[in-house]
Design goal:
This protein is an alpha/beta fold. Helix content is 40%, strand content 21%. The chain has a 6-stranded parallel beta sheet, with helices on both faces. A 3-stranded antiparallel beta sheet has the order 7-9-8.
Length: 255
C-alpha cells in the first residue's frame, strides 16, 4: 500500500537548488499529500524559493524569528508535525532538514507507528540520521541531476561527481548483514540484505558510492560473490550474495 506522506521542509536549513529532484525522490516512497515549508518569508534570503514552491505545490508557512540568533522554524515544524500525526491523515513523514533538533521528533513519530524519512546534507548529525527509518543525502540527488544533464548533453569531458569509497567499516557492516540472513551455505537473498542494511544504518544507500542499485555495488566489491537464480516459476531472476572468505581475508591483509 502506498504511504500518504507529510513533507515538512526546514526552509532555513535546506538549499533550494534541488527541490525538484527531492520531490521526485520522495515520490518513490509514497504520496506526498501534505507539503509545507517553514521560514521567515519576509527575509530576502528566502526569495529564491518563490517559483520553486509554485512549481511543486508546496505551501509556505510563515514563521517570524522572535529573537535574533534563535530559530523559531524548528518549533513551528514540530507543532505542525504533532497536529498532523493526531489528525490521522498520513501514515508517514518526510522531514527535510540537516538539523539535529528534529531527532526527538523523528523518534516520537516512529513510536507512534509512522514511517519516517529524512533528507538532508552530509553534514547532518548522526543522531537525527539514525532516528529515521531511511535517510537520504541531498548530495546524492545533486550527483544524479548532474549525471542526467551530462547524459543529455553527451558531454563526457566533465569529471564524475565525488562519491564515497567503500571503507573497511562499510565492508564489515555488509559482511555481518549477509551473515545474519544467509542460509547454511552462506548465500543470502539480496532483498533481505538490503532491508536489514537499511534498518542497521538508515543512511546506507548504494548511490553514496556511485551506484544506482545495490546489485552493481555488490558486484564491484571483490570479496562478494553475486549469483542470479530463477524463481520457482522461472519468470524472473533473483539475486543472491555471499561473502568470499578467501578474497575478504586477502583484502584485509592488503589494508
Amino acid at each position: 500500500m502506498d504511504l500518504n506522506l507529510a513533507v515538512l521542509i526546514d526552509g532555513d536549513n535546506i538549499p533550494s537548488a534541488y527541490v525538484k529532484e527531492m520531490m521526485e525522490e520522495i515520490a518513490k516512497y509514497g504520496n506526498p499529500t501534505i507539503k509545507r515549508i517553514y521560514g521567515d518569508w519576509t527575509n530576502p534570503r528566502l526569495s529564491k524559493w518563490k517559483n520553486i514552491l509554485l512549481e511543486n505545490a508546496i505551501t509556505p508557512i510563515q514563521q517570524y524569528g522572535y529573537t535574533q540568533g534563535k530559530n523559531a522554524t524548528d518549533s513551528a515544524m514540530i507543532i505542525d508535525a504533532m497536529d498532523i500525526l493526531y489528525s490521522g491523515k498520513v501514515n508517514g513523514f518526510c522531514i527535510v532538514s540537516s538539523d539535529s533538533d528534529f531527532t526527538r521528533l523523528a523518534t516520537r513519530l516512529r513510536e507512534a507507528g509512522m514511517q519516517v524519512f529524512g533528507i538532508g546534507e552530509k553534514k547532518t548529525p548522526n543522531p537525527f540520521i539514525v532516528a529515521c527509518d531511511k535517510f537520504i543525502y541531498i548530495e546524492i540527488l545533486k550527483n544524479q541531476s548532474q549525471e542526467d544533464d551530462e547524459a543529455t548533453t553527451e558531454d563526457k569531458s566533465k569529471p564524475k561527481s565525488n562519491v564515497d569509497k567503500i571503507t573497511p567499516k562499510d565492508l564489515r557492516l555488509i559482511a555481518t548483514t549477509i551473515s545474519d540472513v544467509a542460509d547454511d551455505d552462506g548465500w543470502a537473498f539480496l532483498g533481505d540484505v538490503g532491508s536489514l542494511l537499511q534498518k542497521k544504518q538508515p543512511n546506507f544507500d548504494s548511490r553514496n558510492y556511485g551506484f544506482q542499485k545495490l546489485t552493481p555495488l555488490f558486484q564491484s566489491i571483490n570479496a562478494i560473490e553475486v549469483e542470479r537464480r530463477e524463481d520457482s516459476k522461472g519468470r524472473k531472476k533473483l539475486i543472491y550474495v555471499k561473502m568470499n572468505e578467501k578474497k575478504s581475508a586477502n583484502s584485509r591483509r592488503r589494508k
